[in-house]
Specification:
Layout: E1 6-10, E2 22-29, E3 32-39, E4 42-49, E5 54-59, E6 69-75, E7 80-85, E8 91-96, H1 104-107, H2 120-128, H3 134-138, H4 149-159, H5 172-201, H6 228-233, E9 242-246, E10 249-253
Antiparallel strand pairs: 1-6, 2-3, 3-4, 4-8, 5-7, 6-7, 9-10
The protein binds a DNA duplex through α4.
Length: 259
DNA sequence: ACCGCTGTTCTCCG
DNA sequence: TCGGAGAACAGCGG
């Protein structure tokens, strides 16, 4: 988290209330960021969601503001903390700190794979109750918090499960594989993007900016490329990654090894 | 220039 | 109830 006091907030009226506040806490549940500031000794909550195109960027004194900056916090050392969001699906709300626990959206979140781990027994019960295809179901934030369109495809690829399978048809063995694959995929993503962000920008990773033109994923946006796993394990021409649409979202899969 | 696509989520129908 | 479509928005690439 940026270490500094807010001396100005621009972009939203409620943020004026944060002038003089100091960032003191940072938490995450799924895709929700829960920031805490201290304002005259009282905690204030700042609830943020990145939507599709949102990101937080820290800029040094004198830097140009990034394109699509929607909210700017000026910190006491002249740094600018920007909430950047091209498509405006992101959200930022000032709420009483204690009210985080009462927000229906937050209360309804399923377990966060990183924060809470994945309870396979609970997951099995939920999956057994649904005839939905497993992939769109994984996007349901009340099932697991934080799994989005990329991780859903990646995890099913790793677990060798066809994204079109009805959730209730998954075996216990497959659910175990899936739970591990979700963790593995998230860990992989953090290692890769985190490392590249770190390497390309130095130590300070209190802002998140992905290097452009970089795709660390196994299947996401790789339609037409050979399946890397089958290429290693199967002789002959490897199958090609396919793209399909489920619930209006792209899914990527290997038609051979995902069953 | 048009069309389809994009890392999300909410609401409205049938 | 559930699932799918459409909406919110703005850009990019073929």
């Amino acid at each position: 988290m940026a270490d500094g006091r807010v001396v100005a907030g621009k972009g939203q009226r409620a943020l004026k209330a944060l002038v003089g506040a100091r960032f003191t806490g940072f938490d995450r549940r799924g895709k929700h960021l829960l920031l805490t500031l201290q304002q005259s000794g009282k905690p204030v909550g700042l609830w943020s969601h990145l939507g599709m195109s949102g990101k937080w960027l820290l800029r040094q004194p004198g830097d140009e503001p990034p394109r699509w900056s929607r909210v700017t916090f000026t910190l006491d050392r002249g740094q600018q903390l920007h909430f950047v969001d091209l498509r405006l699906f992101g959200r930022m709300r000032v709420v009483p700190r204690a009210a985080f626990a009462e927000q229906p959206v937050l209360v309804a979140l399923g377990p966060d794979p990183l924060h809470d781990g994945i309870d396979r027994a609970t997951l099995s019960k939920r999956l057994a109750r649904s005839s939905k295809p497993i992939k769109p179901l994984l996007l349901d934030q009340t099932l697991l918090a934080g799994v989005g369109n990329i991780q859903a495809s990646e995890a099913l690829y790793r677990a060798a499960i066809d994204p079109r399978r009805p959730a209730r048809d998954l075996t216990a063995r497959e659910i175990t594989r899936l739970a591990r694959a979700i963790r593995a995929s998230i860990d992989f993503t953090l290692r890769h993007l985190g490392k590249q962000i770190d390497d390309s920008r130095g130590r300070d990773i209190s802002y998140v900016e992905e290097p452009a033109g970089l795709n660390p994923f196994l299947v996401y946006e790789r339609a037409g490329e050979p399946c890397r796993r089958c290429r290693r394990q199967v002789s002959g021409a490897p199958p090609v990654i396919q793209r399909l649409v489920q619930a209006a979202r792209s899914t990527y899969l290997c038609p051979r090894h995902q069953r």
